[in-house]
TrEMBL record:
GO terms for cellular component: plasma membrane. It holds the Pfam family CobD_Cbib. Keywords: Cell membrane, Cobalamin biosynthesis, Membrane, Transmembrane, Transmembrane helix. The chain crosses the membrane at residues 57-76, 153-172, 293-311. It is found in: Cell membrane. Pathway: Cofactor biosynthesis; adenosylcobalamin biosynthesis. Converts cobyric acid to cobinamide by the addition of aminopropanol on the F carboxylic group. This is Cobalamin biosynthesis protein CobD. InterPro entries: Cobalamin_biosynth_CobD/CbiB. GO terms for biological process: cobalamin biosynthetic process. Belongs to the CobD/CbiB family.
Length: 312
């Protein structure tokens, strides 16, 4: 019940303060990740069999996640910190305001007719090449990022906090960060990053579908459900597919399609329905995520009240 009551407070902190500008724990975790990688990655990877590379990656993931998850569990059990620590850890794990601010800069640049700035700023939040995108391409990239990160940076963190409290949200957020660093299917990380990628897939499986359902509730439900049902199975990610297909359908815009990543053209299935997105649709996507987060906050308060009444 306490987690359900802490959740709205952490969302409010994020709304008021945004991400810390300095000394963010995830920045420190990134440095720690690089140090562990130097220890765990072999000097001659070509000589390592696949199973041993995967074992090295799994041990590295465990070395990073288990002590910090245990530390979160201990902090949340200490007197005086049993309230402060869970709220602070959830606040540090979610990034709703940061996501909205990054998207707003892109939207404003397009609104001002500054395509060059819009391309530059959308490149901060997506991994595709943005230098040749037209206005619709920039808007498409921004909306896809907002919808997908709505799950990764908001709803999945809320889910694991509600389920397991402070250690749950720390375990999820750090594993998601590891996936962003090691989860690439390239020569270096295909096997070493296997454990990080699979763990993130498992932890995101239920939250991704709850996120998609949230988008349906707050948008065009029939379109969103049809797109989720027919388009999500064609997407290359089992978790991003439902989130982005349902979100695109709920917004009534067409997303997906081919994009260039690191100089290589990648064909992607279409997502959503309706016209190509425009700059104002970026704001609509941000509001969809924001309304969803506060819907979860309201439901968590309602749940806490019901539990309190049942135990009164």
């Amino acid at each position: 019940m306490s987690s359900a009551l802490f959740l709205p407070l952490a969302l409010l902190l994020d709304r008021l303060l945004g991400e810390p500008r300095r000394w963010h724990p995830l920045v420190g975790f990134g440095r720690l990740t690089r140090a562990v990688e130097r220890l765990g990655y072999p000097s001659s990877p070509a000589a390592e069999p696949k199973w041993r590379m995967r074992m090295r990656g799994a041990l590295s993931v465990s070395l990073l996640l288990l002590p910090l998850t245990l530390a979160a569990w201990l902090l949340a059990r200490l007197p005086l910190l049993d309230v402060i620590a869970p709220i602070a850890l959830l606040y540090l794990a979610i990034g709703a305001k940061s996501l909205a601010l990054h998207a707003e800069v892109v939207r404003q640049a397009l609104d001002d007719g500054n395509l060059a700035l819009a391309r530059e700023r959308v490149g901060w939040i997506v991994s595709r090449d943005t230098s040749e995108l037209d206005e619709a391409g920039v808007a498409r990239a921004a909306i896809e990022s907002v919808l997908e990160n709505g799950c990764d940076a908001v709803f999945a963190a809320l889910f694991w906090f509600l389920l397991l409290g402070a250690p749950g949200v720390v375990l999820y957020r750090l594993s998601n960060t590891l996936d962003a660093v090691w989860g690439y299917r390239n020569a270096r990380y295909l096997h070493f990053g296997w454990a990080a990628a699979r763990l993130d897939d498992v932890l995101n499986y239920i939250p991704a579908r709850l996120t998609a359902f949230t988008y349906l509730l707050l948008g065009h439900a029939a379109n969103g459900w049809r797109c989720w049902r027919t388009q999500a199975p064609t997407w290359y990610s089992p978790n991003a597919g439902p989130v982005m297909a349902a979100g695109a359908g709920a917004l009534g815009v067409s997303l997906g399609g081919g994009a260039r990543y690191h100089g290589q053209w990648k064909e992607r299935p279409p997502l959503g329905c309706g016209p190509a997105p425009a700059h104002q649709d970026i704001g609509r996507a941000v509001r969809l995520v924001s309304r969803g987060a506060w819907l979860w906050a309201g439901l968590s308060i309602l749940w806490a009240v019901l539990i309190g009444v049942m135990h009164a």
